Request: fold
Amino acid sequence: MGLFIAIPRYHCTMRHIFIYWFLIMGSIAGNGQNDTLEYTDKIYVDYIKSVAFHPVNSPIDQPILNLGSRTGLHLSFDDVGGDNYQYNYEIIHCDKDWNPSDIGESEYLTGINGRRIEDVIPSVNTLVDYFNYKLTIPNNEVSWTLSGNYLLVIRDEEDLPVISKRFMVVDSKVIVVSTMKKSFEEDRIFSDQNISFEIDYEGYQIQVPEEEIFVHILQNGRWGMSYKNLRPLPGGLNRLKFQRSQGFPFPGHKDFRSFDIRSFDFVTKYVHSIDLNTDETVVLLELTKPRAFKNYLSENDANGAFYIQNKDLMGPAQGNNDRLRVQYLHHADYAKVIFNLKTMEIEDKDVYILGNFNNWLPSDEYKLTYDHTRNIYVGETMFKQGYYDYFFGTVDESGFIDTEELEGNSHETENLYTFLVYHRNFGDRYDRLIGVSYENSRDTR
Reply:
């Protein structure tokens, strides 16, 4: 949705001047609504903000569930357009490559698809007005019956997509056994993490493994940082081997940068100042520098994830984990967050803020501009109260995204690797997800 469509959804009062800026900046960025559904993680309009999708009570975990599990997936998002808009949700089964599966809806779902999201509440005591939408799946209206990849699609009243989010349902049949090794390439020994793995499928029938089994490996849940469709070697009794001469190396990256704005009452690590104005809250982050040529320094992070939380107003505790406290998401406000990166200007490339919060996709909303008077990159964008991991990344004219140039790599970095094992037997019309395994780089060294 472009500038002239989105703005009329606002009421013309002084209270909404700040929100006008919020939406206009996004519209100038050229992120108008795309009518075509894409089978990926995407936000299609500028007035949808803070999209979070994760297992219930696990806000930094990947959206993966066991088939038949009582645990659900929780989706939340904000509409800053000023009205209580109607949104419907749809669930689509996909193959291993994120194309629609060749099966009917009744074969993978029970209940009614395309129902309205009913859990809607307006923001309370916030400078930025919005409506917060929440959805948990499966629920009493719809559930799935097959394993595999799924796409959750949120559509507006015109049946146009505004959000699409990927999730997986696993019916565990096999076990992944993995180890971490040094890189086989001499110049990458201190920068890469090399994975070796096998699959134990004892007790599960696979007729021709090298033609039926496919494995994806994701680093920190990122589909853009992954190996896809790896096939096993022929032979092997109850054990599938996956080998390449150079192994399966990943760039180690560095631990994520982060900032914590769960509270506006005090500054936290990497936050320089918080200005509480009558019409907006401005958060200035500490001045940062590139880390490509710096020694590795361990940092606590969430492996690229984020979670929304107003730490000044939370419900009763649920266990010892602070993230599991009851969240009043409609009480969390937005702030203008200012980023600073001290470095020489990089020719023929643009610099962006990247993380799970924007699906690792560069856009003008998260683009930094170079200030030649101070020799720094500067950018500002809106973030809801919460905790955020991020990287600085460069993008060249071809669209290639590179975080190594500004962040560097280290084999010592803590990363979480996810193994997804798919099986399509002869005659099947969909890909089963028969195994999910997680390996932490530090636990396997």
